[in-house]
Amino acid sequence: MSERQPHNPSASAALYQIEGWGRPYFVVNDAGHVEVRPDPSRDEAIDLHSLIEALTARGIALPLLIRFPNILHDRIRLLNDCFATAIEEYEYPGTYRGVFPIKVNQQRHLVEEVVEAGRPYRHGLEAGSKPELLIALAAMQDEDGFIVCNGYKDLTYMETALMAQHFDNEVIVVLERKEELERVLEASKKLGIRPCLGVRTKLSSKGIGRWSGSCGERAKFGLTTSEIVAVVDRLRELDMLDCLKLLHFHMGSQVSSILPIKNAIREAAHTYAELVKLGAAMGYLDVGGGLAVDYDGSKTDFHASMNYGVQEYAYDIVAGVQDGCEKAGIAAPTIVSESGRAVAAYQSVLLFDVLGADGVHFGAPDEPEPDVHRLILDLYETYRGIVPKNVQESWHDALEAKEEARSLFKYGYLGMRELARVEKLFWHCSEKIQQNLHRLRHVPEELSKLDELMSSIYYCNFSIFQSAPDTWAMDQVFPIMPIHRLDEEPTVKARLADLTCDSDGIIDHFIDREEVQPVLPLHPLVAGERYVLGMFLGGAYQEILGDLHNLFGDTNAVHVRLEDYGYSVAHLIRGDSIEQVLRYVQHDPEAMVESVRVQAERALNAGRMTLPQLRTFMRHYESSLLGYTYLSADEE
70-347 is classed in which CATH architecture? Predict the structure, then answer.
């Protein structure tokens, strides 16, 4: 067991950059625990480590997703307040209405919280598919509701949206492909309902980051200028030009720089003005999504960060739209934005325990006997001679010795024990070289990845593919850190491996002050003590994109709400059982039980299994079907 090294909690906060990405919701307290402040307007805080202890005492096992509805409320308040401030300061004559894109997180409790939080601001919902439209119609129960319909639309989708216009909601069908116009006209004629329409334009302005392809001439959705003009002409022909009320564009998710946003607003405002001049009724300009989240806390235009704040975003949108409308001499529209990531990302934290670790830490080697193979003696002398000024030369010598040993072994000139001693001495040399690197002003490039080579692997009780799929699919970085022991120095550099048998099930890119790092500073594991890590800012997309790799299902989830007396566990959503995930992939658990029972009986009759063994086996098999897909504490 490694000796615990004292550490200042504020130093840990700086190391994991929690002030950069977590403010104002997450801090490190004096006890060395991560603390959540769900409502920044109040002084109350929730100690995450104490919360986990209380929840596991209730029988709620890790891994566990904790959602904080107060944070969701605060994000919607912040977004609406920032636009209200911009509208007031610029004396903008229009208004603002936000909509939450359901695709960001379709979980029922979260959608209901969004509707509740948005009620004072007339915040609406955006649907990108027929199932999402059905969710939006059921959730948006208030008068003066607002629903924007995007995505592919068949006739049923169109008819449902048109008939929903008779509810208390304003439902706008956005034409994203030219074929949709005739489809909505068909539905309108069939139902006798004049549609409320929008049109999505393909801007020439370029986005930035991984989703920059969402705009431009080759974008998946949207109409070209000529197609928009054709829509206008067709609607005029049918005396329905008053039905066209909204212009929409989308730059892509996580736009990390403000400059592309400003350019797009300028172009979109001019397009909007031209539609008004062509006779369309208009009234709404939907600037889409793209409002970023600062995942690494660097405040830069790096793809996992943002070089602007929510208030600057609101200022630039309001100013850009106002300038375009004033130049064209037209009335200012209601500004609509579809911010989802910026609203939902902060509200959930995934907590998981570390089950074990593999490392390459050897300390000092024993001196070899004089009569051992010369490679062992040479490599030991290399180890003894390592000093800061010769680390590069020593590295070359160690690599050469290891490769020669493997070659000799391959051709039968070196035994397995000798090869094992050479390989172990190589790791001794690597460890000593790594320790000496910290004393150098300049680290040779070929040794810059030695930290990664020497890193430990911490095996964690979760599935990357289920709970953090973007880390695998696109190397997205999320803040990951211990939620306790932050008053101790983290002396181990590690990568995180999940429970799946896939070699891709490992996280090896972590936020850092300067650039993404392949290892994460962590604490040595202590026998008999649980070590819990948290992945933060994963509330957008991750929950819904997760898959069933190795049949690891949804994790347990709780909603923790800040109350006057402390906190309450508002909702508990049990994670998938093994039986549930088996049914997802069309297996019949009852038939499976019967199949293995027959085999067990055959083994009993043949004398290969005793009756107590049969009983124990069947009890394990049947109880496992009802259990959590992840490891439980008594199985670690």
Answer: Alpha-Beta Barrel (3.20)
